[in-house]
Amino acid sequence: MARRNRRQFLKDSMFVAASAAMSSSSGRVLFAQEGQSKSANEKLNVAVVGVNGRGGSHYRFYSGRKDTVVSYVVDVDNKIGNNRAVEIEKRQGIKPKFVEDIRQMLDDKSVDVVSIATPNHWHSLMAIWSMQAGKDVYVEKPVSHNVSEGRRAVEAARKYQKICQAGTQSRSNPGMIKFIEYVRSGRIGDVKVARGLCYKLRPSIGPREETKVPSYINYDLWCGPAPMAPSTRNNPKNGPVHYDWHWFWDYGNGDLGNQGIHQMDISRWGLGAKELCRAAFSYGGRLGYEDAGETPNTQVVTHDYGDRTLVFEVRGLKTDKYRGAGVGVIFEGTDGYAVSPNYNGGVIYDKDGKEVTKFDQGDDDFHFANFLKAVRSRAMSDLNADIEEGHLSSALCHLGNISYRLGSPQSADDLDKALATLHTSDNAKDTLERTLAHLKDNGVDMAATKLQVGPVLPFDPATETFPGNDKANTMLTREYRKPFVVPPAGQV
Question: Which domains does the chain have, with CATH numbers?
Fold first, then answer.
């Protein structure tokens, strides 16, 4: 029998234990080896693409199981890629092949799974290429660099009937699942506002200067779909290529797409929103220092869901937690509120701020195991974070950034007047006042500083476009550098 046909007998039996994690007497959750195939013929070959940073969680998971093997390491950085291949060999006893170009791996029919942890601008295209090549895909958050390409990734998964999991791992954490169930049960009343927070210190990355890229990095492949432009950053901590790409529009999406995607996803999940918003609005700026970065380090985004509102706050300067959360989500109900300060669950409070109950259980491995369960069952419904869920939450980040980027400098007084016209369940004026106080505490002279204030952008969630707004619609996609082109609608 062929490799893939042999695997089908596992359809009804594999990964039951992985989805119902067992605990040891010490309380530590055991799941890394649960529900695995014991047959060598059923071992899945995995290619991990992007093995610096977040990619470490990917290759450590797959190389630590008995039923998966990392057969390829793909990375444009030769030093990192080769070092990871050696490390993986020590973990699993087999050295994976190392290649710079994902296309070299995609032609290998023995590869079953592609696990993607590259910079954002590559996520959708690599996922689409991989599914076109017959592979199942785990793709990190955000699943896209813009709204349109995220929808194309969804189309590819459906057309080729591939399993595609978004890397929003909170969706698989038992504590978070119970926390969201509680929020949606009505026990804290009617939840009108979900407030995501990214209060995360982001120091200056240094001055803007053209910097030479090391010869061991294939910079053409690193740029991929983005313009082949010189590196203009050289933070001593990260160098001219790694990590600080988050703060440049060609490659990243600021902290909305870096950290905020997790909290956007949890917020949308808790609100029970199965589509995108009716309008988006944003204001903020890159304040407190001047450096090479382009994206805001201070930003507020409001998503209008009619009778509900999803708000997101970014603070990259020093700040205190808000209602117990620094990076997290707050659900504001009429009979209480719920605070998730991490990826694993949260705390429920009554109207007086008295703790009612709490939930806290989770780990990245739950999400990877959930993905493998679906790979073996071939049931998209088994996924906790199907690519469409990832697309919707990623798109919320992009919509907020589109409003911000279409904005203009305005004084705080002008912004206050603009908020009066905004349809929102949130107390938008209170959010603004807290933001301004935060900036003042960090020495920002608001009398001399203007914030970038975007327009309120009406949005049609059915067509995923801005009705009658050509300028905003052009920002739903990008101009791709050949041959790294995401196919247009209907052509995946």
Answer: 3-172+365-386 (3.40.50.720), 174-362+392-474 (3.30.360.10)
